[in-house]
């Protein structure tokens, strides 16, 4: 944690977003990441990279894809990060989340985020390109009530097709099964990771009711999420944004081990050993991107939002600690 605080003070990354594979069993309207082939690192290659991440000061990793559970060795992948004291969060669509696999994840200090964008079967199939909602809900039913060491949640991307009634159903389903529930905005920037789809686009008035509702609930039940939602609202309204976390507090590591500032900025790469010098080559481009096409990928914004609100967080520490105990300690 000392190294983590040092990195934060020096504006050095503490989070790696790891695309463990590009393979995916869904074809989401909002995603350009999936591929039919993927040049994934094997465990020996990955451990070399994990050791470098640890020396650099990385404390957290988001294991995503593609669909990470398509890797049969996903538990071994997770264990490599845990072995080197980097806390993993597995981000999955839940289709392959068997009861056995969930029990193994529950034994580990590992967070789990299950992406579900609608409780309406037809809309789910349209958004995800696969009619799998009943299967995913059944999987969650089977793992409900498991004791676990990490934070488990359902996350929903808000699009122009979202409705407040649907969000309330997802929220209730998550609560009934002992999971935290969070939303995030649909993002389109350059189309590297997020795919542009006119049906999914929206203006503030289209989603004001949803974000207003979630923000109000989070202020009482999930204060850290409340701080994030406040920034979501600023972003959607088109208000000025702080510099994002790309190459400041987080970065992308692809399935091959290549490192880039963020999932939408893959035309620039860097080496951890020469990070400070490498960052200078694309720092200006990142600032231009932030001014001209600001986005709100949570993994490239959350740390900065929380770090800027550190004194507010300290003032609300008793409430936040109680919430972390209830939902599972994300940190």
Report on the structure:
- By secondary structure, the protein is an alpha/beta fold.
- It has a single domain, classed as Alpha-Beta Barrel (TIM Barrel), CATH 3.20.20.70.
- It is built from 13 helices and eight strands.
- Strands 6-5-4-3-2-1-7-8 form an eight-stranded mixed β-sheet.
- The model has no long low-confidence stretch (mean pLDDT 93).
Considering the chains and any ligands shown, give keywords for the structure.
single chain, TIM Barrel, alpha/beta, 331 residues, globular, eight-stranded mixed beta sheet, 44% helix
Low-confidence stretches: none
Overall mean pLDDT: 93
* Percent helix range: 40-55%
Tell me the CATH superfamily. Answer: Aldolase class I
Instruction: Name the CATH architecture.
Output: Alpha-Beta Barrel
